[in-house]
Amino acid sequence: MRIMHYTGLIFICLLAFIWKMSEAAPYISVKSNSRSSSQKLINGHLRTLYAYNVEDDMNNFGGMMSHHRSASFNSDLMSPGQQRNLQERLMEIQK
């Protein structure tokens, strides 16, 4: 009778251990948004000195942590090439 009692207890502990180990990790999702802009009156016209928006999205969907960033930049005073360069720098993910 005692052997059966210990066997049942060991079996229950083993099932509890297997069940606990098979649980999936929690899903993590972090979103961040940063924006800033500045305008100035130049020769009677309101001009955008800069306006940027950076969005970050991090999650572990599928079991692996992934990080995506999007950015936009606008300025009435900078050339299109300078704006593209600055937008690319804003999109770089610091590691």
Automatic annotation (TrEMBL):
Keywords of the record: Signal
GO BP, one annotated term: mating behavior
Signal peptide: 1-24
InterPro entries, alphabetized: Acp26Ab
Pfam families: Acp26Ab (PF05777)
GO cellular component terms, semicolon-separated: extracellular region
The protein, known as: Uncharacterized protein
Organism per entry: Drosophila ananassae (Fruit fly)
Gene name per UniProt: Dana\GF14297
